[in-house]
Amino acid sequence: MKCATVAIIGRPSSGKSTLLNTICEMKVSITARTPQTTRNAIRGIYTDERGQLIFTDTPGYHLSDKEMNKRLQETAVKSLEECDVILYMLDAKRPAGEEELAIAAILSKTKTPVVCCLNKSDILKENEIEEGKQFLHDHLPDSTVLIASAKKDEGVDEILIELFKLAPEGELLYPVDSYTDQPVEFRVSEIIREKAINLVTDELPHSIFVEIPDIEYKEAENTVWIRAFINVERDSQKGIVVGKGGENIKKIRQGSEKEIRLIFPGKKLRLDLQVKAKDKWRNNGIVLDKILR
Ligand SMILES: Nc1nc2c(ncn2[C@@H]2O[C@H](COP(=O)(O)OP(=O)(O)OP(=O)(O)O)[C@@H](O)[C@H]2O)c(=O)[nH]1
Ligand SMILES: [Mg+2]
């Protein structure tokens, strides 16, 4: 059997989390059209007759001096140090800029094999593919280049073939039916965050974090009872999340419940959502320590 750890790296919004979900056939990592959605190193596990690939989805590599962004960048870079293979995702729809150059520079120095994937093939024009290939040829000449659409599940089997080729021999590290190792509270909080950011994305893409103060299974009622706080950065932002007559919060709850139920099959669910303001939490080290660990 083969077994490898694979770090997925790339600029924000290149489709890293979408790819992980397509490979695992499960919502392992949340996605959104706004950049900088992923905030943690998120493990997703894929197993078949060839062996096991243990993926780490990472926060999009973004150059910024802000405290939170610096921590996200550290998480991404640290994942590179701990893996057998690196999967570098590029969105060739956007021309390679400073960030792409910074990632390529890091990857060109590593001894770990790199597989590159020009993602979003479903919307790429021929010249964009050529430019992407040229960029990789110039900066990472030894790496394999594949073209795929994570969203449409095209070219994804070829990515798996390439990763297994590079994977070392080894025993499986997780049971064959595992697809993630995230604690339940974290998964629930991420599902709620996804629903919230996708609904108010133009107004507050990055101002939200979700806390789960209580999660409890009441056996007599066969009910999982969850209390969650959607935190924004200012009191004035609370109304945006709640929406007119509570319509946004209702949509967030309904969308979240649908996915949270998949984590607790056969059980009833009570989800109590509240919106709170935590002043300037993105500069608050205690909050960051808690949510970015
Ligand atoms: N057309 C197209 N869109 C895609 C594809 N893969 C991802 N997307 C879209 O790109 C956006 C970003 O996708 P994510 O998977 O959240 O990107 P990410 O790289 O994880 O982003 P961060 O977590 O912010 O670093 C979403 O709107 C996806 O639907 C693809 O193959 N084709
Ligand atoms: Mg992501």
TrEMBL record:
<dbReference type="GO" id="GO:0005886">
    <property type="term" value="C:plasma membrane"/>
</dbReference>
<dbReference type="InterPro" id="IPR027417">
    <property type="entry name" value="P-loop_NTPase"/>
</dbReference>
<feature type="region of interest" description="G5">
    <location>
        <begin position="148"/>
        <end position="150"/>
    </location>
</feature>
<dbReference type="InterPro" id="IPR005662">
    <property type="entry name" value="GTPase_Era-like"/>
</dbReference>
<dbReference type="Pfam" id="PF01926">
    <property type="entry name" value="MMR_HSR1"/>
</dbReference>
<dbReference type="GO" id="GO:0005525">
    <property type="term" value="F:GTP binding"/>
</dbReference>
<keyword id="KW-0699">rRNA-binding</keyword>
<feature type="region of interest" description="G2">
    <location>
        <begin position="36"/>
        <end position="40"/>
    </location>
</feature>
<feature type="binding site">
    <location>
        <begin position="57"/>
        <end position="61"/>
    </location>
    <ligand>
        <name>GTP</name>
    </ligand>
</feature>
<feature type="binding site">
    <location>
        <begin position="119"/>
        <end position="122"/>
    </location>
    <ligand>
        <name>GTP</name>
    </ligand>
</feature>
<dbReference type="GO" id="GO:0043024">
    <property type="term" value="F:ribosomal small subunit binding"/>
</dbReference>
<feature type="binding site">
    <location>
        <begin position="10"/>
        <end position="17"/>
    </location>
    <ligand>
        <name>GTP</name>
    </ligand>
</feature>
<comment type="similarity">
    <text>Belongs to the TRAFAC class TrmE-Era-EngA-EngB-Septin-like GTPase superfamily. Era GTPase family.</text>
</comment>
<feature type="region of interest" description="G1">
    <location>
        <begin position="10"/>
        <end position="17"/>
    </location>
</feature>
<keyword id="KW-0547">Nucleotide-binding</keyword>
<keyword id="KW-0963">Cytoplasm</keyword>
<keyword id="KW-0997">Cell inner membrane</keyword>
<feature type="domain" description="Era-type G">
    <location>
        <begin position="2"/>
        <end position="169"/>
    </location>
</feature>
<dbReference type="GO" id="GO:0003924">
    <property type="term" value="F:GTPase activity"/>
</dbReference>
<dbReference type="InterPro" id="IPR015946">
    <property type="entry name" value="KH_dom-like_a/b"/>
</dbReference>
<dbReference type="InterPro" id="IPR006073">
    <property type="entry name" value="GTP-bd"/>
</dbReference>
<feature type="region of interest" description="G3">
    <location>
        <begin position="57"/>
        <end position="60"/>
    </location>
</feature>
<dbReference type="InterPro" id="IPR004044">
    <property type="entry name" value="KH_dom_type_2"/>
</dbReference>
<protein>
    <recommendedName>
        <fullName>GTPase Era</fullName>
    </recommendedName>
</protein>
<feature type="domain" description="KH type-2">
    <location>
        <begin position="200"/>
        <end position="279"/>
    </location>
</feature>
<dbReference type="InterPro" id="IPR009019">
    <property type="entry name" value="KH_sf_prok-type"/>
</dbReference>
<dbReference type="InterPro" id="IPR030388">
    <property type="entry name" value="G_ERA_dom"/>
</dbReference>
<keyword id="KW-0342">GTP-binding</keyword>
<comment type="function">
    <text>An essential GTPase that binds both GDP and GTP, with rapid nucleotide exchange. Plays a role in 16S rRNA processing and 30S ribosomal subunit biogenesis and possibly also in cell cycle regulation and energy metabolism.</text>
</comment>
<dbReference type="GO" id="GO:0070181">
    <property type="term" value="F:small ribosomal subunit rRNA binding"/>
</dbReference>
<keyword id="KW-0690">Ribosome biogenesis</keyword>
<keyword id="KW-1003">Cell membrane</keyword>
<comment type="subunit">
    <text>Monomer.</text>
</comment>
<keyword id="KW-0472">Membrane</keyword>
<dbReference type="Pfam" id="PF07650">
    <property type="entry name" value="KH_2"/>
</dbReference>
<dbReference type="GO" id="GO:0005829">
    <property type="term" value="C:cytosol"/>
</dbReference>
<feature type="region of interest" description="G4">
    <location>
        <begin position="119"/>
        <end position="122"/>
    </location>
</feature>
<dbReference type="InterPro" id="IPR005225">
    <property type="entry name" value="Small_GTP-bd"/>
</dbReference>
<dbReference type="GO" id="GO:0000028">
    <property type="term" value="P:ribosomal small subunit assembly"/>
</dbReference>
<keyword id="KW-0694">RNA-binding</keyword>
